[in-house]
Design a protein that fits this description.
The structure is a single chain. The protein is of the alpha+beta class. Helices cover 53% and strands 20% of the residues. It has four helices and three strands, in the order αββααβα. A three-stranded mixed sheet has the order 1-2-3, with helices on both faces. 18% of the residues are buried. The mean pLDDT is 89.
Length: 109
């Protein structure tokens, strides 16, 4: 499962960067983690988007609407018995870590 999760993470990241034609999705979007169920039916893709809340919601809507397209590209690139249904979840861990890092730097100065 670890190898499958890593492979799906790599492919989704590449698809979001290179194959998505929507200009709203791009450099500011990164895949943090992927969790696939043991039966390969479902896959949670944790995505981090840098920007304000409106921008985050807009990017998540675009990605969610394109999940079928992304799934079809993954099916072509990875040889799996079943291509999982993708569910994209917004992950704020990167933004949270930047905030904590800024607080620590402010305390030290």
């Amino acid at each position: 499962m670890i190898r499958i999760n890593d492979e799906i993470k790599k492919e989704v990241s590449e698809i979001l960067r290179a194959d998505m034609k929507d200009p709203r999705v791009g450099v500011i979007t990164s895949v943090i983690k992927v969790d696939t169920t043991n039966d390969l039916k479902y896959c949670k893709v944790y995505v981090s988007v840098l920007g304000d809340d409106e921008k985050k919601q807009e990017v998540m809507n675009v990605i969610s609407k394109a999940s079928g397209y992304i799934r079809s590209l993954i099916a072509n690139r990875i040889n799996l018995r079943v291509t999982p249904e993708l569910k994209f979840i917004l992950d704020d861990s990167l933004e949270y870590s930047f905030k904590i890092d800024k607080i620590i730097k402010d305390i030290n100065n």
